[in-house]
Design brief:
By secondary structure, the chain is α+β, with helices and mostly antiparallel strands. The protein is 46% helix and 15% strand. It has a domain of 51 residues.
Length: 82
């Protein structure tokens, strides 16, 4: 099913068609996504927000791994020595 959104600017009516798809998830996952939502948020809004957070965290993780890779082994410190 396609949703059609109609926007109006000062002079013209603009019709934008957004393709939609269906993702099959278990009832458990659906409930968890619903609980993460805020009042008035659609599933798409919730997923966009979660994906943005995940992407930020993945960037941070990548930065940490890059720093580890750049650090010479001789500079490593054993946990017992801390």
């Amino acid at each position: 099913m396609h949703k059609i959104y109609i926007y109006y600017n000062f002079y013209n009516k603009i019709v934008v068609t957004m393709k939609r798809t269906t993702i099959a998830v278990s009832p458990e996952i659906k409930t968890k996504v619903q609980r993460l939502g805020r009042k008035g948020e659609s599933y798409e809004d919730i997923l966009r927000r979660l994906l943005a957070i995940s992407e930020e965290e993945l960037k941070l993780i990548d930065e940490v791994y890059e720093r580890i890779e750049r650090t010479p082994r001789k500079e490593y410190v054993r946990l017992e020595d801390l």
